[in-house]
Amino acid sequence: MKIGFQSSKYNELTLEEELNLTSKENADFFDIFFDEWFPLDISPKESKMISDFQRKGFSFTVHLPISTPNLPIEKINCLLDFVCDINPLTTTIHFDNLTFPFMEYLAKKTENHTILSIENTIPDKNAKTGEKYVDFMTKAAKIAPVQATFDTGHCYVNKADLIETVSALCEGQIQISTVHAHDNFGTKDSHSPIGEGSIDFPTFFKFLKIQKLNPLIVIEHWNKNLLSLKRIKSILKNIE
């Protein structure tokens, strides 16, 4: 499984610094999370860095803003133009405010440029349909070529079993493209480093391996990324 870092508005690093850290620590890819910012905020130097990384064979993923379904169409298309320009491995969007028509629009606009991947959220409910994540995804996969971004921390806070949830997705023929890895104690979405919560990551990653699932692993929290990278690598090594 490939492991990558994610941009964060909380770590006091610029995108340039985050990319340099990713390169230095030999992460496998980098997730650009547009968390209250947009492609127009990327400086020319940072844009060149992204292009230079890609020319060297480095890969990116994209996480669209949580507010994407409610954004003006010009901002949505700016985001989608960026996706089509850099051709990320996956592009993630939250499921809680997603409608099927808008999902179809995203899939059509990014066709042949990325895998559109839909993420589970807190709470486990779509505001438009009232459906839980697995039920929503079962319908979504029949409408457009979408896959799943499975967020470990969100699932745990929702009091759902990680393995049972992934199993249900697989039974519905839904591919897991991406896993967002962060820890908590089941009470709030603290986005803590791996090992600083009560999620059983060794058992979870062993299950993924046994099921021959090979998702991209995004370390999704705001500090101690290197600690999580070390711990995930150790877990994966021990289950080989």
Describe it.
- The chain is of the alpha/beta class.
- Helices cover 40% and strands 17% of the residues.
- It has an eight-stranded parallel β-barrel, surrounded by four helices.
- Helix 1 links the parallel strand 1 (3-6) and strand 2.
- The mean pLDDT is 96.
Helical content stands at 40-55%
**Spatial order of strands in the largest sheet:** 1-2-3-4-5-6-7-8
Structural class: alpha/beta
Oligomerization state: single chain
Q: Tell me about the biggest sheet?
A: 8 strands, parallel, barrel
- Low-pLDDT stretches are none
Strand-residue fraction? 15-25%
What is the straight-line distance between the termini? 11 Å
N-to-C SSE string, H for helix and E for strand: EHEHEHEHEHEHHEHEH
Radius of gyration: 17 Å
Mean pLDDT: 96
How many beta-strand segments? 8
Give the number of helices. 9
Shape label: globular
Annotation keywords:
240 residues; alpha/beta; eight-stranded parallel beta barrel; 9 helices; 8 strands; 17% strand
Topology record:
Layout: E1 3-6, H1 15-24, E2 29-33, H2 44-55, E3 59-63, H3 73-86, E4 90-94, H4 100-109, E5 115-119, H5 133-143, E6 146-151, H6 152-157, H7 162-171, E7 176-181, H8 201-210, E8 216-219, H9 225-238
Parallel strand pairs: 1-2, 1-8, 2-3, 3-4, 4-5, 5-6, 6-7, 7-8
Quick structural overview:
Helices cover 40% and strands 17% of the residues. With 240 residues, it is α/β, with parallel strands linked by helices.
